Fold each of these.
Amino acid sequence: MENRTTQSFPRRERGLDSFKRTMRRSARRARGGGALSAVLRGVLVAAAVTVLGVVLFALLLNWWDASDRAITAINQVVKFVSILAGVTSALRAGEKGSAMRGACVGVLYMALGIACYCLLMGQSPKLTGYLADLGMGLAAGGLFGMILTARKSA
């Protein structure tokens, strides 16, 4: 009869091959970045699109005498386009949690916009006035995240 208690399992060597596999795995993870870096990249892209949109709109206003309602509507369109660009840059094909990532991009983008506005205008933020903007960023980012993921998977 064979003695089962003395039977040993093969030992894995932790040599150079194991080290190389670990380094390749780490490099792949670093290249892709995490969710936080993707969200921050999305917020920066959205901010850049906003700056470009505001500059183009300001140039357009030199030749066009727009009403206050038109200016407000175009500002909302610039915000939506910026959130869409930010969410698009924060998502990759086949990723899960795209609605959450999109919502994070939208909320952080709107919070950054509110903070910049308050700093430039020298006002303290009024909570009731800016909650609607934060809600819009949350809803638009989450919705764009869901739509883009459904579109990429189809």
Amino acid sequence: MKITVSHQDEMRFEAKTEKSSFIIDCPQISPIEYFLSGIIACSATDVVMLPKQQGYAVKNLAVEGEVVRNESAPRKFNTLHLEYRFDSDADDTLAARWVMASLETYCSTINTIRDSVVITYTIIHNGNTIRENEKMISGGGSSVDFGSLQGCNA
């Protein structure tokens, strides 16, 4: 992946990707807001694609992200809470699996920050809260020691 960002005028920049381009208009939308939007959009695409591959449909998807940042520079993310709201024709267990699969495996942006940011999530599926303030299994802002794992001897 390669992106080139060029200064246009004042505090406007053009970002050119291999596929397209877009304008970054600071301070209208700050780079950190674009960054958080990218994180959320990455996971949201998973929560649409995974069900579709399994023959289900997700409707009314909205993902809200709230970040707490350091007070002083660099103002890195300390915590990130994501709230997923959506409807589907699946049961709650399967709906939760889609979100967890995105968080733990598929979403590269979340997986890029998860070793340094405590990430929690809430899932509201078909109007019911099915997970509330859950922590990522392998995230948490530090390395997690699961001990040694023994495989099957063949």
Amino acid sequence: MPKLKIQEVEINVTKFNNEDYICLTDMMMAKDGEFFVTDWLRNKNTLEYIGIWEKVYNPNFNYGEFAVIKNQAGLNRFKISVKDFVAKTNAIGLFAKAGRYGGTYAHKDIAFEFAMWISPEFKIYVVKEFQRLKEEELKFVGWSAKRELSKINYHIHTDAIKNNLIPKEITSSEANVIYANEADVLNVALFGKTAKMWKDENPDLKGNIRDYASIEQLIVLINLESMNSELIKTGKSQSERALFLNKMAIEQLTVLYKYDNKLLNEFNSD
């Protein structure tokens, strides 16, 4: 589960209906004194904001029950839990979660308002940290997409090996050796080591060398697989292909990293 880290406080974030919800219970740790989420929920301004939010996003919101609750806001005797509020109004902006990572969660829009209740400064830090978390997620999505693309592209590579390098009448285990050897041609060209060398160096890591590649390396890997397929068809020897692919990997990685640094510098200068 992802977390926001603000002023030594760790705040859990979860998905609900494909939307981001932030743990208000965790956020309370940043507020001085003995306070509860119910203290915030009984506030008239809080209820007005939640009512408007639900009106915009929740067609099944129970306005009748909400009106009764809202009319009691401000009275000393008035107090309502998140669980009761959700049960009576059919709200979707809040929910109470039990068990590990439990607590009261709110949609990010409402959670940001809760952060403002704690302090304006705290809200700024919450929004900033949340944006950082989203940027990290986008990077991971991009990496995953390129990793999947490289796996699909690998079939082009293996087909070229099958049709041009694997002799007839050999066993499947012998064929697998050829596939593995050709995969290592790409590994050495791009990473400078075979799959076994990487595994020997990282015995505690799960997966293989390609699972730990950068986005830039995965992009180049896709290009190397396509190029190696064409080189195999032309009858180039493995040593010739290895030298050519290594040179190609160096050139492409140099361009990609230079481009990434340029974008980073432009971003920092804005």
